């Protein structure tokens, strides 16, 4: 059995999720529930659950605020959210479990089964993926302002604002920073496009390049449109997207 705690500031949501889990996820044992961050922190610390079902947007402190209280996260998290599309994109980007409200029992079963498999396969009690995810969030928890990247056995937290462009390679993407450093990631360009488009300053200019429009210094007006970045790189803009792309970053240039 997987011991779990449900955290939600609406009692009827707790009761509904308890009922759905009892009917559809027999391997889950609810050992406690909580309706606020401070109480939830005490219960997680004392009861040591394998898993928590965590509402994000609660009165007072948020679910993200709760996770920030832990130096190391040694439990799995399934976010239960009616939040916004951006949060969902962030969860998918980081391969985290989430369920949308109102809860569909099939989605619940799928997410719970996947999480149980992760719990059984994990060799250590620490959950580094969740710990890294919390570090990427802005102060409000609504936007990601950092992305984690692995390099020479270390995990680096890269500021999104320092991204000049992201280039898709054969089996990976390369993140290029304003200071000239480069980092590779297994994330695909489409994943970056979904995540970064919400920030507002990133745009995909062709099939392999996403640029930060804050670092565009010029573009050509001819049939072939090329942009020049502050770091010196020159990239051709897709002809099919040229008109919409130029209009989207023209205001930033002038």
Brief digest:
The chain has helices spanning 11-24, 37-47, 63-68, 85-93, 105-121, 128-136, 189-197, 242-253, and strands spanning 2-7, 28-34, 51-55, 76-81, 97-100, 146-151, 154-159, 163-168, 173-177, 182-185, 202-204, 209-212, 216-219, 226-229, 234-236. It has 254 residues and is α/β, with parallel strands linked by helices. Strand 3 (51-55), helix 3 (63-68) and strand 4 form a beta-alpha-beta unit.
Question: What does the secondary structure layout of this molecule look like, with pairings?
Answer:
Elements: E1 2-7, H1 11-24, E2 28-34, H2 37-47, E3 51-55, H3 63-68, E4 76-81, H4 85-93, E5 97-100, H5 105-121, H6 128-136, E6 146-151, E7 154-159, E8 163-168, E9 173-177, E10 182-185, H7 189-197, E11 202-204, E12 209-212, E13 216-219, E14 226-229, E15 234-236, H8 242-253
Parallel strand pairs: 1-2, 1-3, 3-4, 4-5
Antiparallel strand pairs: 6-7, 8-9, 8-12, 9-10, 11-12, 13-14, 14-15
Helix pairs in contact: 4-7
Characterization of the model:
The protein has 254 residues and is of the alpha/beta class. The protein has two domains: 2-136, Response regulator (Rossmann fold); 152-253, LytTr DNA-binding domain (OB fold (Dihydrolipoamide Acetyltransferase, E2P)). It has helices spanning 11-24, 37-47, 63-68, 85-93, 105-121, 128-136, 189-197, 242-253; strands at residues 2-7, 28-34, 51-55, 76-81, 97-100, 146-151, 154-159, 163-168, 173-177, 182-185, 202-204, 209-212, 216-219, 226-229, 234-236. The strands form four sheets. The protein has a five-stranded parallel beta sheet, sandwiched between helices. Helix 4 (85-93) runs antiparallel to helix 7. The longest helix is centred in the middle third of the chain and has 17 residues, at 105-121. It is elongated, with a radius of gyration of 21 Å. 28% of the residues are buried.
